[in-house]
Structure to design on (426 residues):
């Protein structure tokens, strides 16, 4: 039985809104949140439940707690008459939020779900946490002026990929159509990353690199089309918490959004819960704390354990987020523009840490538009432009002046030294 606590919030109704979810199963918790810059409270209440059910990949029993009578009665009682009338109300008017009700109806089909109403703002611990997450999503959507979300991978309508293609694969995406808001980013994305295969995805701004990262992290999802196949670690129905332990992502977005008041040690410990800072309800064993301190020693940041994240240099922040990713000792690491914003010394130091992880046997994927961030150990280069993989092959074949000039629409020549490449004006 999975317990799901959801809430929505809106400032102005209509206005900027947010949704929050707390998932609990077998002693493990997951927090999800997101928001939209222009919406209503009812839409956020509905979207909270939708995102929660999408995150529950296994067809297990679920108990959903909501403080919205609109959601609880709508899904338990009203929806049956709406569907019978062709999504019309008793007075023959179109059902409000029909798009979301249809999504929710699809998600509950074939599942055993209990719907529980609880009184909001009444001191209910889990409801208060869901409300705080919803308000955080609201504020982020208001600040950024766009739809935002932080959710784990979702089980779309998968089909079996060939056994040979899936063997030893970390990520296997076939024929994915992916949108960010109203923008269609990928029309037919296919990409495979196998164990022990170090690769770089290289492309200009707007190529789709950030969307690929969010797809890998489960923050955006492909459309549920019959031809779409998505597998993580060879599994078409991966357990999100197992994936978090096997895949460490150090992203530029996370550094920008991480809470500035978090202490260094807590930044690393937060990797155990995939959260932004640590919270009173989270518990860490002596072994977990020892592991976090060992990682900080390895990265040379042990002396900064009590320093606030906002008081660290960009390079120090990047090291702590790497420590957060390493705390589970995952076999795969993904780096998003690893040296962006770093000075020359910090850049060289961080790239040396990245190469150290390769030497330890970890599979590394770098996503960037900076050619100097490609370490000598990476041999596979994937060129991405306008949502399309335009080339995928050996570094020696693709890191040429002709290829890079075409990729960035700019005359470019490359120089090489000791396995490193640098771009110069052509």
């Amino acid at each position: 039985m999975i317990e799901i606590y959801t809430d929505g919030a809106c400032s102005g109704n209509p206005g900027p809104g947010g949704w929050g979810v707390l998932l609990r199963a077998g002693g493990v918790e997951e927090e999800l949140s997101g928001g939209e810059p222009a919406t209503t409270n009812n839409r956020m209440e509905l979207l909270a439940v939708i995102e929660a059910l999408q995150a529950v990949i296994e067809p297990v029993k679920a108990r959903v707690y909501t403080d919205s009578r609109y959601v609880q009665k709508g899904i338990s009682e009203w929806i049956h008459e709406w569907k019978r009338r062709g999504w019309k109300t008793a007075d023959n008017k179109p059902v409000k939020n029909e798009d979301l009700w249809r999504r929710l109806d699809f998600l509950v089909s074939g599942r055993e779900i209990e719907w529980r109403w609880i009184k909001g703002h009444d001191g209910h611990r889990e409801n208060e946490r869901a409300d705080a997450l919803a308000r955080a999503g609201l504020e982020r959507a208001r600040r950024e002026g766009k739809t935002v979300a932080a959710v784990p991978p979702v089980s779309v309508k998968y089909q079996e990929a060939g056994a040979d293609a899936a063997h030893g694969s970390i990520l296997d995406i076939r024929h994915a159509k992916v949108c960010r808001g109203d923008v269609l980013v990928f029309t037919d994305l296919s990409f495979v990353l196998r164990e022990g295969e170090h690769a770089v995805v290289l492309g200009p701004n707007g190529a789709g690199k950030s969307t690929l990262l969010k797809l890998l992290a489960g923050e955006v999802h492909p459309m549920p089309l019959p031809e779409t196949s998505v597998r993580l670690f060879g599994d078409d129905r991966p357990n999100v918490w197992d994936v978090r332990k096997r895949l460490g992502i150090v992203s530029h977005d996370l550094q920008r959004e991480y809470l500035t008041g978090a202490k260094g040690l807590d930044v690393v410990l937060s990797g155990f819960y995939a959260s932004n800072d640590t919270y009173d309800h989270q518990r860490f064993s002596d072994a977990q704390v020892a592991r976090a301190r060992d990682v900080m020693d390895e990265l040379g940041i042990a002396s900064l354990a009590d320093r606030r994240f906002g008081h660290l240099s960009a390079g120090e922040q990047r090291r702590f987020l790497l420590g957060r990713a390493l705390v589970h000792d995952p076999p795969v690491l993904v780096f998003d523009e690893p040296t962006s914003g770093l000075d020359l010394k910090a850049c060289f130091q961080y790239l040396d840490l990245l190469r150290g992880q390769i030497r330890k046997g970890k599979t590394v994927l770098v996503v960037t538009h900076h050619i100097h961030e490609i370490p000598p150990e990476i041999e596979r280069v994937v060129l991405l432009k306008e949502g399309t993989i335009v080339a995928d092959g050996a570094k020696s074949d693709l890191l040429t002046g002709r290829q890079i000039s075409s990729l960035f629409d700019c005359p470019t020549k490359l120089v090489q030294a000791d396995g490193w490449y640098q771009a110069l004006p052509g």
Q: What stands out?
A: The longest strand covers residues 28-39. The domain at 192-221+237-425 is CATH 3.40.50.300 (Rossmann fold).
